Amino acid sequence: MEIKTNIEKETLAVKITAEEAGQVVGRAFLYVLKNELHKEPFGFLEDVFVDADYRNKGIGKQLVEKAIVEARSRNCYKLIGNSRFENEAAHRFYERLGFKKQGYEFRMDF
User: Fold this and answer.
1) Which CATH number applies to 32-96: 3.40.630.30, 3.30.70.1520, 3.40.1120.10, 3.40.50.620?
2) From residue 89, how far is each of 17, 37, 56, 79 by CA, in Å?
3) Model pTM?
4) What's the pLDDT tens digit per position in 62-89?
């Protein structure tokens, strides 16, 4: 048996930012990925962050809503977001935006 590595060129990274006076105060990354289980791609939402001075003003919601629109425009069949177990505020935030808890994320740090 031979194990091979192939580079998929259809992967896309979209950086979404919130700016005030030319300064980035929030960001989110949408990665559009393909697998062989579906003909459509899926979206992975990562690094949603709002500067502490700008939190609780709806910026995070706007960033995620923009990522949802972007994922839909790229014909994604699903959008995955993640957060740590202990970050229950983030869980409630995602659930208010229509995300549902499903499964576990497994991680390996290097």
Assistant:
1) 3.40.630.30
2) 21, 32, 12, 19
3) 0.90
4) 999 999 999 999 999 999 999 989 999 9
